[in-house]
Automatic annotation (TrEMBL):
Protein name as annotated: Imidazole glycerol phosphate synthase hisHF
Keyword Membrane recorded: no
Protein role: IGPS catalyzes the conversion of PRFAR and glutamine to IGP, AICAR and glutamate. The glutaminase domain produces the ammonia necessary for the cyclase domain to produce IGP and AICAR from PRFAR. The ammonia is channeled to the active site of the cyclase domain.
One GO term describing the cellular component: chloroplast
Cited PANTHER family: IMIDAZOLE GLYCEROL PHOSPHATE SYNTHASE HISHF, IMIDAZOLE GLYCEROL PHOSPHATE SYNTHASE SUBUNIT HISF/H IGP SYNTHASE SUBUNIT HISF/H
Length: 590
């Protein structure tokens, strides 16, 4: 395919406060005590499926443009998994000398452009692309090729492709951010998409570029989410994708492999799928904490009580975090979440090897990883102060795609509702400003409080389908902090609406009453919250059978359903859940 001339207008823009934050957070190296931690200890039994992995020969080096925001570790891991070494861009000359360049844009548009402009990378990128050198942009790495973006803007982009990047419209009922596995509509020969077999790929973004007459020659695929937006572009050797191949399981690895081995005969066509729209997600959750011997284990509570009811009163041990996460990936989980459930009292960067768990997991697990627990400001025993942004940054650098905030989000919401002022200083606001709200989940731990009369309380109450123990017909859902230990004067409904305004991109909705009971999700609660907000809601707590997943997706607007106990105890495999959902006509990723 011949590459027509490019219309470049590489532009510069002043350094924003976001970019200053971004560069300072990314350059800060955290001085925390790393526990001695053996990789074999945590991943001894887990063997990754290597069927898609091939060894590169000859010039097996990929140049990676990583400007220090968000999770680029996953892209690195996927490239290494496919047999390539990575050379990091240090100077603009490294871009010009690259044989193949991967640009995984992460974070906000303006912040990324500021960094690129400041260090001369923008010009080098334009020059490299204009010469039709092998290029793969990912997510923001696609958006930055356009003329400008409305994200905190307008802000000028690299100007290589005609068009403005705009925000999804949530007024038509589509939740923003667009998070999850969606279908591609192939428009032109893209080569790198040749083997994907009509399967879903993983998107996570609030802004998108739209097709037009001016950019139609660039478009290789579109995706529908309220409107048709550009999912990938291709011109000559230049490719860019809005979705995340490094997070799209075997489909994504196949796309990356086609880019890295353009003339390869080693490609393997994947099983044909029937992807047509955004799939409902099935998420495996690992509650993690140190047991009494100090080993980090996956545990599971009954209504948040994680101790065995024996004389020893030990913390329940259901397996090793890295091993189990790897197994759930193989089994087809659409995401894996780690919740460090004692993070509220232990400093996550100091005492617990959660960072190592993330690092090892992300080497072999190519679906999104969320980590939560202990994300807040903290001063250690030596008086060193860590901001929640630093804690989150370290999680992102270690392989997390999203972080989840529990207790700290409750305090932030209470303060916001009390004063009506967004200070911009809460962990929620800071992290979503720097990393984008799609990277920030708020985990809610509510407990049912039964009422005879809904007017007995200032918080939103619901009429229950099943009355309470004393025949109460109503309940409100009281938020808790510190792993359910302390009730707070705020309801789940009020909290959900407040954290959406403060910048949360998704809600993980637990329910203490249902946790570990296996009797089904709390439909009243999930309906209340998923109807109240326009960000995606993950239903959690209570799954005990495949039918419970169908129920939550047919009776509420949940975007995803999460389970722990039934997966850990191997009572119901992830695949059975998906097969059942498909039989019931609910689209899921296969
Ligand atoms: O407050 O920011 O440090 O975050 C702490 C995080 O740890 C929160 O996300 C909170 O939900 C979680 N957490 C704290 N204590 C517990 C506990 O169980 N004692 N776990 C806990 C929350 C709930 C779900 C569980 C589902 C599904 N566990 O994660 O996986 O209920 O379980 P099921 O399918 O077996 O019913 P911070």
């Amino acid at each position: 395919m011949e590459a027509p001339p490019f219309s470049s207008s590489c532009s510069s823009s002043p350094l924003s406060s976001t970019a200053r934050l971004l560069s300072s957070s990314s350059s800060s190296s955290l001085l925390f005590r790393r526990n001695s931690f053996s990789k074999t200890h945590y991943s001894a039994k887990f063997k990754s499926p290597r069927n898609l992995s091939v060894r590169a020969s000859g010039d097996s080096v990929v140049t990676l443009l990583d400007y220090g925001a968000g999770n680029v570790r996953s892209v690195r891991n996927a490239i290494r998994y496919l047999g390539f070494d990575i050379k990091d861009v240090q100077t603009p000359e490294d871009i010009l000398k690259a044989d193949r360049l991967v640009f995984p844009g992460v974070g906000a548009f303006a912040a990324a452009m500021d960094v690129l402009n400041k260090n001369g990378m923008a010009e080098a990128l334009c020059s490299y692309i204009e010469k039709d050198r092998p290029f793969l942009g990912i997510c923001l790495g696609l958006q930055l090729l356009f003329e400008s973006s409305e994200e905190n803007g307008p802000v000028n982009g690299l100007g290589l492709i005609p068009g403005v990047v705009g925000r999804f419209d949530s007024s038509n009922g589509f939740r923003v951010p667009h998070i999850g596995w969606n279908a591609l509509h192939i428009k032109n020969n893209s080569e790198i998409l040749d083997d994907i077999g009509n399967r879903h790929v993983y998107f996570v973004h609030s802004y998108r570029a739209m097709p037009s007459d001016d950019n139609k020659e660039w478009i290789s695929s579109t995706c529908n989410y309220g409107d048709n937006f550009i999912a990938s572009i291709r011109r000559g050797n230049v490719h860019a994708v809005q979705f995340h191949p490094e997070k799209s399981g075997d489909v994504g690895l196949s796309i990356l492999r086609r880019f890295l081995y353009p003339k390869s005969t080693t490609t393997k066509k994947l099983t044909e799928g029937k992807a047509s729209k955004l799939a409902k997600r099935v998420i495996a959750c690992l509650d993690v904490r140190a047991n009494d011997k100090g080993d980090l284990v996956v545990t599971k509570g009954d209504q948040y009580d994680v101790r065995e009811h024996t004389e020893e009163n030990e913390v329940r041990n259901l397996g090793k975090p890295v091993e189990l996460a790897g197994q759930y990936y193989i089994d087809g989980a659409d995401e894996v979440s780690f919740l460090n459930i004692t993070g509220f009292r232990d400093f996550p960067l100091g005492d617990l090897p959660m960072l190592q768990v993330l690092r090892y997991t992300s080497e072999n697990v190519f679906v999104p990883l969320t980590v939560g627990g202990g994300i807040r400001d903290f001063t250690d025993a030596n008086g060193r102060h860590y901001t929640s942004l630093e804690v989150a940054s370290e999680y992102f650098r270690s392989g997390a795609d999203k972080i989840s905030i529990g207790s700290d989000a409750v305090y932030a919401a209470e303060e916001y509702l009390r004063t009506g002022v967004k200070t911009g200083k809460t962990s929620l606001e800071q992290i979503s400003r720097v990393y984008g709200n799609q990277a920030v989940v708020v985990s809610i731990d509510p407990r049912r409080v039964y009422l005879k009369n809904p007017n007995d309380v200032e918080f939103k109450a619901v009429k229950l389908k099943n009355p309470g123990p004393n025949g109460e017909e109503y309940a409100w859902y009281q938020c808790t902090v510190n792993g359910g230990r302390e009730g707070r004067p705020i309801g789940a409904y009020e909290l959900a609406k407040a954290v959406e305004e403060l910048g949360a991109g998704e809600i993980l909705l637990n329910c203490i009453d249902c946790d570990g009971q296996g009797k089904g999700f709390d439909i009243d609660l999930i309906k209340l919250i998923s109807d109240a907000v326009s960000i995606p809601v993950i239903a959690s707590s209570g799954a005990g059978a495949v039918e419970h997943f169908t129920e939550v997706f047919t009776k509420t607007n949940a975007s995803a359903a999460l389970a722990a106990g039934i997966f850990h105890r191997k009572e119901v495999p992830v695949q059975s859940v998906k097969e059942h959902l498909l039989q019931e006509g609910i689209e899921v990723r296969i």
